[in-house]
Amino acid sequence: MTLLRSDNEQLFTFIALQDGDRPKWYRDKQTARYLQQQGHCLDAPYQTALQLLNRLQTDPHHPEACYWVRVLYCYLQECVWQVSQRLADHRHGYGYSREDYFQTGCSLLWQAPLTVLQGFDPTKGHLLSFVSRRLYDRVYEVYYGARQSDWGLLRRASTRRLRQALTLSGYPDRHRCLIVFLVVCWQQLTTGSVAPDSQTLAQISRTYTQSQPQSPPLGERDIEGYLQQAIQALRHYHTKRRIVCLYYCEQVSQGEIARQLGLPGQHTVSRLLERTRSSLAKDLLTLWLRAREYLIRDCLQATWQELTDILPPSLDRRLGHVRAAELPSIDPDSREAIAAQQQLRQIKTNLNDPESKAALKSLITHPPSEDIRWQAAELLHDHTDPDPTAGSWKVRKVDLGIALDGTTLALTMAVLPRDATSAHLFVRVTPFSADAFLPAGLSLEIVTETGDRFARLTSRAEDQAVQYKFWGDIGEAFGIILEYGGTKITESFVV
Question: 10 near 74, Cβ under 8 Å?
């Protein structure tokens, strides 16, 4: 759908979306009056927009800056609409509409126009073309994560993520260490996301020779080859996670996944999914947030149950002796955090009040700390009218057998939405009875997909819980290991 307007209206008209109606151009009378009073030329909208952009960049706190922002916002509305149409065409089947993309683009442009327009040079291109590219990438990132070139992907890769990718690609330890060293050198020597030039490769070669004098020297072509191997491993790693997310969480068919990701055919997707299924029986946490179809719900209830359904009401899951290391402390100087704690105490006394529900949702989405976020989420989950903002809370019984004399533990796993590509995660182990304590020496370990230890917590005498808060990318795999007295239980998950 194309929305047209005359040149002399481009600086003071904007698109408004009305439910059930076609989008229309609306006139901003206040902005039109300002332009007329200041004598700006309405018949030359591009030149006027450039002039006001220059003023805004020079003096963003000028009393008239709010009008300059409104003029630019109106002028660029057509560009935002075209971007939303392109995204809707390119990313169909993901559950987002053209209107969703449009509103997000408008929000980005209105709230931070100088950020969107940063780097624009009128001598090198047209403003509309620049904004179109910039907004497409920004809106795409909100919903699907950053669009990255090969070298952009390598630039943003952490050492831990790179090691995981290389391990999953089958590289031996010495080969992994060499590639990681070269990538870190490249990241430190350059600032952009472009292929290294001959000078950079030579500098990496000298650095390697100085640090590894006993090893054979590396030529520029060798180094570039190793960097390409790192990119290929990262691409494979991200593709695998994306396939898992699309198939299990978005319910996209294997053929459509192959088409969207540019893979050779459906057989490629099928083989990767089969390897994922056969390697570990993993619980897909993102499904817990989207489990609306009865088949998914039944599958989850076979092993995991709702927190409020399985734990006895007499067990207050939010109280007890919890190690300080697992419970992030509140900065005593943070007035916002102190006020939030007081607010939570008041909410507990009147949990089912409608105002309490709204306050909890606010604390979850805009918390002063992660501890506050999870306290609010658990309280909201206990509300008589639960809200999706509370995320999903599941628990299962764990029996370590003779090691605990038959004492049953409760393993709680919770997941909260974080953004389009990741989720907040929370794991906790408690006794199944209200008056019991965890045995001293019970360990809770979180490991990565490659088996590397991410965190390890150990209970002490009279601890009632061990717990850990973290986050993960959608499609990322990890494991939880409970161990006591030589008995070990492993649970595997995919975010």
Answer: yes
Q: Could you count the other beta carbons within 10 Å of the beta carbon of residue 66?
A: 12
Residue that the structure tokens 């083989």 belong to: 271
CA distance 118 to 193: 18
- What 3-state class would DSSP assign to 393? strand
Domain ranges of the chain: 7-144, 154-279, 285-494
- Tokens 């809707």, residue? 88
Within 10 Å of residue 100's Cβ, how many Cβ atoms?
A: 17
The three-point CA angle 281-283-288 to 5° equals 160
Q: Which CATH class is domain 285-494?
A: mainly beta
Structure tokens at 230: 């790192």
Distance CA 353, CA 358 (A): 9
Per DSSP, the three-state class of 145 is: coil
Low-confidence ranges of the chain (pLDDT < 50): 278-281, 290-302, 312-333, 402
Supply the pLDDT for residue 203. Answer: 92
Q: How many whole angstroms separate alpha carbon 110 and alpha carbon 258?
A: 37
Cα Rg of the chain, angstroms: 27
3-state secondary structure of 126: coil
pLDDT in tens, 96-152: 788 888 888 888 888 888 888 888 888 877 888 888 888 888 887 777 665 567 788
305/65 Cα distance (integer angstroms): 55
Query: How are beta strands 283-284 and 487-494 bridged, if at all?
Result: parallel
Residue 493 pairs in a beta bridge with: 283, 478
- Tell me the pairing of strands 392-399 and 408-419: antiparallel
pTM: 0.48
Tokens of residue 74, six digits: 């109106």
List the one residue out of 273, 286, 488 whose CA is nearest residue 398.
488
Judged on CB neighbours under 10 Å (0-12, 13-18, 19+), 22 is exposed
At residue 99, the 3 state secondary structure works out as helix
Note the pLDDT of residue 292: 34
Q: What is the pLDDT of residues 423-466, one digit of tens each?
A: 788 888 888 776 778 888 888 888 877 677 888 888 888 788 88
State the Cα–Cα distance between residues 381 and 391, nearest whole angstrom: 8
Q: Which pLDDT value is given to residue 161?
A: 80
